[in-house]
Amino acid sequence: MRFIGVKIVDGEPMTLAAAQEYLGRPIDGNVEDHGYLVKYEEGYQSWCPKETFEKHNRPTTGMPFGFAIEAAKQGHKIARAGWNGADMFAVYMSPMHLPPFNSQEPGRKVNDRTARLIGPDVPLDCQAYFALYNAKKQWQPGWVASQADMLSDDWFIVE
Predict the structure, then answer these.
(1) Do 142 and 80 share a structural domain?
(2) Which pLDDT value is given to residue 140?
(3) For position 155, what pLDDT does the model report?
(4) Which among 151, 155, 137, 133 is positioned nearest to 89, based on CA atoms?
(5) What residues are paired with 13 via a beta bridge?
(6) Does 33 share its domain with 85?
(7) DSSP the chain
(8) What's the pLDDT score for residue 156?
(9) For residue 40, what are the domain limits?
(10) Which residue, 142, 42, 150, 127, is CA-closest to 91?
(11) Same-domain status, 49 and 68
């Protein structure tokens, strides 16, 4: 079976010897080898040889669209360096399922504005979509990337 992995990690250039000292554990290999101390979002840390790390990881600036989509699905705001609007970014909006407006269930449910459109007895079944925060500081739900957006390698994670 084959896999493709997409994760966001922090990588700090470090020799194997320095990584062993930092992590407090032995790692197989030549202590003079150059590589990266890798810190995963879940807290796990390891060391990876330079060539392997750079082959399988790209900076979060200058990403292709596919990587940007995966970052957005993991909850990050994404944008393009090539966009000419200030402070624009896109976000992934996950699916949302809510009980009908007239439901007696506790918690969130369809609001009255939506109920007027779909009916008070109809639950909301909203599929995932992308939304754009545009240069006018307005939300544009249902944003669709252009061909130029999809083929560009200037995507980055907005911090």
Answers:
(1) yes
(2) 96
(3) 96
(4) 133
(5) 36
(6) no
(7) --------EEEEEEEHHHHHHHHTS--SS-TT-EEEEEEETTS-EEEEEHHHHHHH---SEEE-HHHHHHHHHTT-EEEETT--STT-EEEEE--EEE--TT---SS----HHHHHHH-TT--EEEPPEEEEE-TTS-EEET----HHHHH-S-EEEE-
(8) 96
(9) 9-56
(10) 142
(11) no
d(CA 110, CA 116): 10
Could you give the CA distance from residue 9 to residue 23 in angstroms, rounded to a whole number?
Answer: 17
Domains contained in the chain, number: 2
Check: CB of residue 47 under 8 Å from CB of residue 38: yes
Q: In the chain, which residues have pLDDT < 70?
A: none
> What pTM did the predictor assign?
0.79
| Largest distance between two CA atoms of the chain | 68
